[in-house]
Structure formats: C-alpha cells, structure tokens
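Box S2. Input/output pair 1.
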Amino acid sequence: MSTTRWMPGEGPRDKLLERGAQALSDAELLAVLLHTGYRDCGALDLARNLLMEFAGLSGVMQAAQASLLACRGVGPGKYAQLQAAQELTRRQALQTISDGDVLCSPRETRRFLQYHLGTHTREVFSCLFLDSQHRVLRCEDLFFGTLDGAAVYPREVAVRALQYHAAAVIFAHNHPSGVAEPSSADRRITERLCSSLALLDIRVLDHIIIGRGTEFSFAEEGLL
C-alpha cells in the first residue's frame, strides 16, 4: 500500500505531521521516504524488509546502489530519494558549522562528520580548513582507501592548506569496521601531519575518527 492510501491518521506520514518526526520508528521514517511499496507489500513493509536485509538503518544508507536496486520494490527513483535525503542532511550539517565557530560547537562538527563519513564503506580522509577565527573555509575529501586504510600524504595536505589560506585544520577519517579507536598508523600519520604543518604555522586542532555512531578525538584524549 502506498503511504498516500493510508486511512486518515493511520499512516507514518500522518503520525509525523501529528506527533513530529522523532515519534516515528526507523521503519516508519524510511516508509515516508520510500512513499510506495509494490503489489501486496506496502511502503512500511518494504521499509521493514530493507532494514532486515541490511541490518538496520545505517546498513540501508550505506548500501551500494547495485545492492539496493537488487531488492524488489527499490528502483532508481527510490534509490535517488534516499541519496537525496542523505545529501541534504549532510549539507545542512555542513552549513551549520560553516555559519559559526567550530570550536564553539564540537557537537555539530561531529554530527556533520558522522553524516559526511559515517556511511562510506571504504576509508576516506577528510580535512576541514579553517581561517584564523576558526571558521570553515572548505571541507575536502583528500585521500581514499580500502576497508583497511588510506594512504595520506602530508605534502598534499600542506598544499591544500596554503591554497585555501588556512590558519588551522581539523582532520577526520572513518573506520568502516565501525570501531573508532585509532590504530598505530593513525597515530603516526597524525604526528607527521602536525610536524609538517607546524613548519607552516598552521595549527592542527583535532583529528577525529568516525566509527559507527561513535567518534574518537585526538585532542580530547591529549594526543595532539
């Protein structure tokens, strides 16, 4: 059944309008996005099937295009809707930290980084370039790797920092395993990056590792 065919007050959309999005379950929110199901399988049932198939909401949003399109009831249109919703959320979070002082809002910075990096199935190394007032000049994904890691080159980071006239930086990368604890390689590259940028008088404010719903901050742990 399409979410447009629920009796008044019965469907997830009505529940959202009456009680707010926070009152909906993962399946109900996903059903609102999917909008329709297929013959003998309504949008809510389709949402439940997808959550079961991909082990939860995070799995659905991280799923590769081919994997989602292989599921009955999910065509290019529904895949595009899910991707658009995810990208809108990421951009809203980026605008939030770009409009203010990132140091005054570490929660929003981590929220953005979760949206930006948390759904990747391979390791991505990103950098937030900041001005002297710690306002965001640019967020850029610099290096891409595999499930196990990504090669990071301090020289390339320095070139980008100088290009954007950055006075400070925040590094971030994800662990596709979901575990946010830093590896010995993470610690070594952080030390190399700090040393390289210190020669250019560019401060490294933090290196944040993004896990599955968790983060690790080098600054908070006294590792910078």
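Box S3. Input/output pair 2.
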Amino acid sequence: MLSGKGLVKTTERLLKEQPEIFDALLEFERTGKILKFTYKKRVNFTLDATLFRKFRTYCEKKGIKMSTRIEQHIGEDVYDSED
C-alpha cells in the first residue's frame, strides 16, 4: 500500500494522466453516483500509406492491435521525456 511521498507522487501522476478519474470522484462526492468514464480516447491522424500497410501487416503477423502498439510507442516517448 502506498503512503507518504509515494502516494502523493502517484496521485500527481494520475491527475496529469487521467484527470477524468478525479472528475468522477468529485461527481460521486457531489451526487453519490458514479459516472461512467472511458480510459480511451478516439483520435485521428494521418500516416504514410506505405508505412501504414507495412505496420498493419506487422501487427497482424504478431497478433497485436495497431492501436495498442501505437499507444505503447507514444507512452514510451511521453513517459521517458518526463525523467
């Protein structure tokens, strides 16, 4: 179980990464009802067509979802840059 500095750091990180969790907690405190919220956000962006085809083939061969792999790469870039 987290306590002290670890709890504060984890809370601060979650507040930055997933503010909707805290919005839901505030709403629960106000109304006594838990709001449904999503952890995922649908996004649109453009990729080179050749790169996209190769990436789709790669993901199919590996049995992974394209969005999951993209999310992993973005997470690596974002979280590595925080250090």
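Caption for Box S3: The chain is about 70% helix and 0% strand. The chain has a mean pLDDT of 85.
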